[in-house]
């Protein structure tokens, strides 16, 4: 491949060299999803001067490029609908060191403000888009030098110093390939540099009518087949700033279905949560390159859309040749009937049947679009609306749909052999009081047992944590659990090498990054008799220990703001305005996520408890929004429910401290009256960043926290 060229401004517009002229013009290169063919980075800068659109290219001495090495900072895609972003603030100054995973700027997308982390190590050499400026997704907004002494050289040679391969965006976009014809002309150039001007030279339109001809099969030498016109890619988006690959949980459209712009086409599991991915184009889903359950790197194509229904066979044949290999033949749609199919030719797919009015399927993300009366009927009949197809406007579920579904299920139940519903006593009591048929409720408890939360879910009400069942209550062997409720214990354990999920990979990367932070640990034993008594008093109202601990920690952090602060390189301490307590939640698939209770110190404990239950439910269903798990300023990891006596927690990035909470266990201790007695004691261990937090500060924090929980626990209610 030829050495890449950098398009810069020709005089009189170019007041500065190379990349510096980028900011002067205020124009950035466009970006689009990557193609599988090799690309080289081609920034395109345009500047109007006296009505002339001039483009020149500057070639940098290859020896000079070898002496310095730089990487680009891109505008990431922080949501699947984001097309451009605004840089709210640069968190680094020119010359500051940057490490992988370290926030470098705050970007305002179409959803929220988020920290954007660096993917490469080095030093910030140049800012191309200042704070307050906007740039399209994939545009270069800054340059990072590999070494500090290379900063000036990078500023001088700009994008020519970028290492090979860095044109591949971490958010799934690349620069346009240089596929324009060029013509050479002479122009002024700085001393010591060769300047060749290139401008597009479009060929004049042909006057001879051309009939469409079939595209010949690509040669055995590996020449790629010709891409049919109108093909649109569905690519793997970057759903978070740290996501490098995603897993397709489910395709929401079948091959042949019509896809409108903005309609969800698939559900993607990122390193944070499951999210619906919307289509940026309108067309017909012609080919699925990555099926359900498949993994794909960010920016890679996972499917293809055809512009019209008639183009589907041609797109399918082309996509099969690209992804599956072989001597597939790609035909032009207009000449498909005239061309003789060369052997071996893939069989033409059947004509997809499209209903005249196909309502969109129910959203798998948990959002139900239904009329209020339909929801009321569903509650009365114990129907789960997730499986009901709506016939109203835009797929809205109406009362007739609920009645139809109720009749259908009644017929199925009458024809099905009688079965016995296994339910907990609380579930039976709640179902009887609310008139819910347990046969219509799906059990999520052990061996498919129906719990109280299952009944509440069927009623559309918030779930509450049930009391553990008594050991004496055993499931009768005469009542086998439904096959769909099969538990892990019943399934065979995996063997051999199993790829990590996106969530597990994110945890792995965070753990590796934590090794570079100097930490220390301080433990403290807290008598929890007063806390246990308060919890027992509030438990009938659904109060959780996590909400009480978060409130206690929030109040104590007010007195010790250094424990709520974080270190910022090279030598500063950031004090957040709010106290946001992140509490770790273990996910069923082995992942870990930290929902955040915002403003824990100033929020009523009952409101914190309601928020916590909602956050846990969303976390288990992988529906947390980024702002619900990325804004923590202090973290808590509670494993007391497992009965552990003590443990250490790993400090997460972006925080200064995390507190590990062990079980509250009975011990013989000296009572306040001087006699010995049995009290429950809980050990907590705080892991802190030793760059800005010191041992005496942690000890003082734990002392005040213990005093609050032991002697002033009623303050949690104020």
TrEMBL record:
Top EC class, one word: transferase
Sequence ranges assigned to domain Peripheral subunit-binding (PSBD) in this UniProt record: 369-406, 422-459
GO biological process per UniProt: pyruvate decarboxylation to acetyl-CoA
EC annotation from Swiss-Prot or TrEMBL: 2.3.1.-
Gene Ontology, cellular component aspect: pyruvate dehydrogenase complex
Names of the cofactor(s): (R)-lipoate
MF terms (GO), sorted A to Z: dihydrolipoyllysine-residue acetyltransferase activity
Annotated keywords: Acyltransferase, Lipoyl, Transferase, Transit peptide
Region (Disordered): 165-231, 328-368, 462-499
Pfam families (alphabetical): 2-oxoacid_dh, Biotin_lipoyl, E3_binding
Residue ranges with Pro residues bias: 201-228, 340-363
UniProt domain Lipoyl-binding: residue ranges: 70-148, 231-306
InterPro entries in the record: 2-oxoA_DH_lipoyl-BS, 2-oxoacid_DH_actylTfrase, Biotin_lipoyl, CAT-like_dom_sf, E2/Pdx1, E3-bd_dom_sf, PSBD, Single_hybrid_motif
Basic and acidic residues: bias regions: 462-476
Family listed: Belongs to the 2-oxoacid dehydrogenase family.
Protein name per its UniProtKB record: Dihydrolipoamide acetyltransferase component of pyruvate dehydrogenase complex
Organism: Cyanidium caldarium
């Amino acid at each position: 491949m030829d050495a890449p060229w950098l398009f810069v401004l020709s005089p009189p517009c170019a007041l500065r060299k190379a990349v510096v002229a980028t900011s002067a013009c205020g124009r950035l290169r466009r970006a689009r999803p990557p193609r599988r063919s090799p690309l080289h980075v081609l920034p395109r800068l345009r500047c109007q001067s006296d009505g002339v659109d001039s483009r020149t290219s500057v070639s940098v001495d290859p020896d000079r490029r070898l002496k310095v090495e730089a990487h680009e900072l891109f505008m990431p895609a922080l949501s699947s609908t984001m097309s451009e972003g605004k840089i709210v603030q640069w968190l680094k100054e020119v010359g500051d060191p940057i490490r992988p995973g370290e926030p470098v700027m705050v970007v305002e997308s179409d959803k929220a403000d988020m920290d954007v982390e660096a993917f490469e190590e080095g030093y910030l050499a140049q800012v191309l888009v200042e704070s307050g400026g906007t740039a399209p997704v994939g545009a270069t907004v800054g340059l990072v030098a590999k070494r500090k002494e290379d900063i000036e050289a990078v500023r001088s040679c700009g994008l020519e110093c970028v290492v090979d391969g860095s044109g591949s965006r971490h958010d799934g976009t690349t620069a346009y390939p240089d596929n324009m014809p060029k013509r050479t002309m002479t122009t002024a150039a700085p001393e010591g540099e060769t300047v060749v001007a290139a401008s597009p030279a479009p060929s004049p339109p042909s006057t001879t009518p051309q009939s469409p001809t079939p595209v010949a099969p690509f040669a055995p030498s590996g020449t790629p087949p010709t891409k049919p016109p109108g093909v649109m890619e569905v690519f793997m988006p970057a759903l978070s700033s740290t996501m490098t690959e995603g897993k397709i949980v489910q395709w929401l459209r079948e091959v042949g279905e019509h896809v409108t712009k903005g309609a969800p086409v698939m559900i993607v599991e990122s390193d944070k949560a499951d999210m619906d991915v919307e289509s940026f184009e309108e067309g017909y889903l012609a080919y699925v390159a990555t099926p359900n359950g498949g993994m794909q790197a960010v920016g890679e194509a996972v499917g293809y859309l055809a512009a019209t229904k008639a183009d589907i066979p041609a797109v399918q044949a082309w996509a099969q040749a690209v992804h599956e290999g072989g001597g597939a033949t790609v035909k032009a749609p207009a000449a498909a009937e005239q061309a003789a199919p060369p052997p071996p030719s893939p069989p033409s797919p059947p004509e997809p049947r499209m209903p005249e009015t196909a309502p969109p399927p129910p959203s798998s993300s948990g959002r139900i679009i239904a009329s209020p009366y339909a929801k009321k009927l569903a509650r009365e009949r114990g129907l789960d609306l997730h499986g009901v197809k709506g016939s109203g406007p835009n797929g809205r579920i109406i009362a007739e749909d609920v009645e139809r579904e109720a009749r259908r299920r009644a017929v199925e139940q009458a024809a099905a052999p009688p079965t016995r519903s296994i339910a907990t006593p609380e579930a039976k009591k709640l179902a009887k009081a609310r008139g819910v048929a347990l046969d219509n409720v799906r059990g999520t408890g052990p061996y498919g047992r129906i719990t109280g939360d299952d009944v509440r879910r069927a009623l559309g009400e918030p779930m509450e944590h049930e009391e553990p069942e008594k050991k004496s209550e055993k499931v009768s062997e005469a009542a086998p659990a439904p096959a769909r409720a099969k538990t892990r214990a019943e399934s065979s354990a995996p063997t051999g090498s199993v790829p990590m999920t996106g969530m597990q990979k994110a945890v792995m990367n965070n753990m590796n990054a934590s090794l570079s932070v100097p930490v220390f640990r301080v433990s403290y034993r807290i008598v929890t008799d007063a806390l246990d008594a308060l919890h027992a008093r509030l438990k009938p109202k659904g109060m959780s220990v996590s909400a009480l601990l978060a409130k206690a920690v929030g109040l104590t952090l007010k007195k010790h703001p250094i424990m709520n602060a974080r270190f910022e390189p090279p030598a500063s301490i950031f004090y957040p305005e709010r106290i946001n307590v992140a509490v770790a939640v273990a996910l069923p698939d082995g992942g870990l996520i930290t929902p955040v209770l915002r403003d824990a110190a100033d929020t009523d404990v009952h409101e914190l408890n309601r928020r916590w239950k909602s956050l846990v439910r969303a976390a288990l269903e992988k529906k947390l929004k980024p702002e619900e798990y990325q804004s923590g300023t202090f973290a808590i990891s509670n494993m007391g429910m497992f009965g552990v006596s003590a443990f250490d927690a790993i400090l997460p990035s972006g925080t200064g401290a995390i507190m590990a909470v062990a079980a509250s266990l009975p011990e013989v201790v000296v009572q306040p009256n001087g006699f010995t007695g049995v009290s429950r004691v809980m050990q907590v261990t705080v892991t802190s960043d030793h760059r800005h937090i010191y041992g005496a500060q942690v000890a003082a924090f734990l002392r005040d926290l213990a005093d609050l929980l032991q002697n002033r626990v009623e303050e949690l209610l104020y």
